[in-house]
Amino acid sequence: MLQVSKQLKQGYNVEQLDDVRIIRDRQTTPVIDAPTEVSRGFGFLRFPSIELSKAFIERNYPSIYLYGAETAENNSQAAKVRIDFSRERDERPRGEKEGEWTCKIVCFA
Prior knowledge:
The chain is of the alpha+beta class. The chain has helices spanning about 1-10, 50-60; strands at about 20-25, 40-45, 65, 80-85, 105-109. The two termini are about 15 Å apart.
């Protein structure tokens, strides 16, 4: 995740992030925190303000490019990553109508 933060800072001028979360596949990861965890292909960026998240989306929508670790298999080729707003998951029962919400997280997949 440090690598993602570094790429966002260098390539997209993202100076402030509260959190970067890459969602991992539990079923393909034999040991928690193993270095071979497999990404499920999406993650979340948390910005300190809505204004910073909006500015990031406005500058880069609909996608950014991120590079994986440089290995012989992938030769560090860029992955096109779709970006959009998301919101916090709350604890209401499914099927309940949605009300107003405020997003501070930008989703990338």
